[in-house]
UniProtKB/TrEMBL annotation:
Residues 43-103 form the Rhamnogalacturonase A/B/Epimerase-like pectate lyase domain. It comes from the Bacteria. Keywords: Signal. This is Rhamnogalacturonase A/B/Epimerase-like pectate lyase domain-containing protein. InterPro entries: Pectin_lyas_fold, Pectin_lyase_fold/virulence, RHGA/B-epi-like_pectate_lyase. Residues 1-23 form the signal peptide. The lineage of its organism: Bacteria, Pseudomonadati, Pseudomonadota, Alphaproteobacteria, Acetobacterales. It comes from Acidisoma cellulosilyticum.
Length: 402
């Protein structure tokens, strides 16, 4: 509660300052439209020396263009009608990270125009945007060079306890091999991702990491991180719409750590490996996690793996919707070190199963689940005695009491 209140107070302060800025803009607009127009700026990376031929190292030129955006923002007393970083169509090779860290001004737009940023930065992220706020990234592809292994395609999120949120990605693709993740989000709240396509063909890496714990101890060469690994923080309100997470080497597409009000809507998560999702619980666990995600891969063993350092996991509100389950073994799998997994207020709707050998829960004694379950296929149900609520199997409905 203290975390929530402190963030609310911070948000109110931010709203107040933005209101003052809007009042200032109103007076400028009324007085001089030319002055308003002068505040709008597009920064073209080619004007700062980027070539975009897929061979030349354009990292320095791109970072110079970003420094120009920082300079313009500073001149506007912390508020801007909008700066746009433009990538004219091309392939921009980079041998070190693109530095968007701590860029914290409203209306910064990264306009990819269908361009590719080719990451030849071994062991580094292609784009490092830790500590940034209010980034909008459109129509851009990040691609790892097959001869090197970047750590991350794009990393966003906190570097301190201060918020680093309100990002929006549309029509973004992050493709190739990454040692940690294609997209790594360290606690960036109130962010949205639409038509984002992520692949990873490195076995130990993920496509998407949503990390509310700093579990993987993410780093930046541009700024110092003051966060302690595996210490919980607020991680609210992320939404993924029509996104695709494809692990091409049999690894885990999606890793989630201590999320609150995260939504996956009309998404895909595909792999031939053990799990489509890892749900990792730290001190706070997960609250109101909604997964409408089709895990369509022949060879998938289990849909969800629930894991934690603690022997007990509590998930407060969990929804999973699937029209056709491809899992061969279990929908819900508990890691061997977890002795009890409680899912409160579950809403599980799985229309049908591809394999009659699949079962809903692994190791029945571990699970304590309440809520609602539906499937047209009664064969796979094995929740008697561990599930309390309404169970609808095809046309039949039965109630299991505590």
């Amino acid at each position: 509660m203290n975390r929530i209140l402190s963030r609310r107070n911070l948000s109110l302060a931010s709203i107040s300052s933005v209101g003052v800025a809007f009042a200032e803009i109103g007076s400028v607009r009324a007085g001089n439209a030319t002055e308003v127009a002068s505040r709008l700026k597009t920064v073209d990376v080619k004007q700062f020396g980027a070539v975009g031929d897929g061979v030349t190292d354009d990292a320095s030129a791109i970072n110079k263009a970003i420094e120009e955006i920082r300079r313009v923002h500073l001149q506007l007393d912390g508020f801007s009608l909008g700066c746009r970083l433009l990538f004219p169509t091309g392939v921009y090779a980079v041998r070190s990270s693109v530095n968007l860290t701590m860029l914290r001004n409203i209306n910064t737009v990264i306009d990819g125009q269908g361009s590719v940023v080719l990451g030849r930065c071994e062991g580094e992220p292609i784009i490092d945007a830790l500590g940034a706020r209010w980034l909008t990234i459109n129509d851009l592809t990040l691609l790892s060079d097959s001869d090197v292994l970047p750590s991350v395609g794009l990393q966003i999120g906190r570097v301190t306890l201060d918020v680093a949120d309100d990002h929006h990605l549309t029509n973004v693709k992050i493709l190739g091999a990454f040692s940690k993740a294609s997209l790594y989000n360290k606690g960036a709240e109130t962010s949205s991702f639409e038509h984002v396509y992520l692949t990873n063909n490195y076995p130990q890496g993920y496509c998407l990491v949503q990390d509310g714990l700093n579990h993987f101890d993410i780093k930046s060469k541009y700024i110092n991180m003051s966060l302690v690994p595996n210490r919980d923080g607020s991680f609210n309100e992320n939404i993924f719409v029509n996104c695709d997470f494809r692990h091409l080497a049999g690894g885990v597409p999606v890793w989630l750590g201590d999320t609150t009000r995260h939504d996956f809507i009309r998404c895909y998560a595909t792999t031939k490996g053990q799990f489509a999702f890892v749900i990792f619980s730290g001190p706070n666990g997960h609250t109101m996690l909604r997964v409408d995600c089709h895990c369509e891969t022949i060879g998938l063993k289990n849909v969800f793996c629930f894991s934690a350092f603690s022997p007990k996991i509590t998930i407060r509100g969990f929804s999973y919707i699937e029209h056709g389950c491809f899992a061969e073994e279990f929908v819900f799998f508990g890691d061997s070190n977890v002795k009890e997994i409680e899912i409160q207020n579950a809403n599980l709707e799985i229309a049908m199963y591809r394999s009659n050998a699949c079962r809903v829960f692994s190791a029945g004694a571990v699970w304590v689940v309440s809520g609602y379950y539906y499937s047209s296929d009664p064969v796979t149900w094995n929740g008697n005695g561990i599930f309390r609520g309404t169970v609808s199997l095809g046309s039949s409905v039965k109630y299991i009491e505590g």
